[in-house]
């Protein structure tokens, strides 16, 4: 009775490592997307706070209004760049999710193949053990039922 050996074990381990790498890439892209979203939120909060700060002052100089206007224009340009970056991050995340699914599929296919081969091996082992047990029982029966004259 030989032990179970899956000939594609090294390929399966390579696929597993590949899957872990693809999942890590997806995690990094998701972190990048969260960082961009946080930057957009922080920028919008800064724009809101700058306007509120001026309103709280009461009297406002023209130079303060000009500075606020320039800041808002700069923030609007920065926001557009961040939104474009967020869109690209979203696209990259979707591409990577697709890659992860494909890699998972390839790994699971090998996993199922291994399980099927292991099941077949186990059935063969059970048959072999059953045949051996039958032979042992038959040999014992013959030994016990042998005529005394022999």
How would you describe this protein?
The protein is mainly α and 150 residues long. It has one domain (9-114). 88% of the residues lie in helices and 0% in strands. The protein contains two helices and no strands. Helix 1 packs antiparallel against helix 2. The longest helix is centred in the C-terminal third of the chain and has 83 residues, at 62-144.
Quickly describe the structure.
The protein has 150 residues and is mainly alpha-helical. Helix content is 88%, strand content 0%.
What is the global morphology? Answer: rod-shaped
Task: State Rg.
Answer: 35 Å
Number of helices: 2
Ends apart, CA distance between termini = 35 Å
Number of individual domains: 1
Structural class: mainly alpha
Let me know the largest β-sheet.
none
The total of beta strands comes to 0
pLDDT averaged residue by residue? 92
Order of helical and strand elements = HH
Low-confidence stretches: none
The amount of beta strand, in percent, is under 5%
| Helical proportion, percent range | over 70%
Question: What key attributes describe this structure?
Answer:
single chain, about 150 residues, mainly alpha, 2 helices, about 90% helix, rod-shaped
């Amino acid at each position: 009775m030989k032990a179970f050996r899956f000939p594609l074990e090294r390929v399966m381990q390579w696929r597993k490592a590949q899957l872990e790498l693809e999942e890590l890439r997806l995690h990094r892209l998701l972190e990048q997307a969260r960082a961009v979203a946080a930057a957009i939120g922080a920028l919008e909060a800064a724009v809101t706070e700058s306007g509120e700060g001026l309103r709280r002052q009461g009297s406002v100089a023209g130079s303060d209004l000009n500075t606020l206007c320039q800041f808002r224009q700069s923030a609007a340009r920065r926001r557009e760049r961040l939104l474009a970056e967020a869109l690209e991050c979203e696209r990259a995340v979707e591409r990577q999710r697709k890659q992860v699914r494909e890699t998972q599929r390839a790994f699971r296919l090998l996993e199922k193949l291994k399980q099927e081969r292991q099941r077949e091996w186990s059935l063969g082992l059970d048959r072999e053990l059953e045949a051996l047990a039958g032979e042992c029982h038959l040999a014992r029966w013959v030994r016990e039922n042998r005529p005394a004259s022999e």
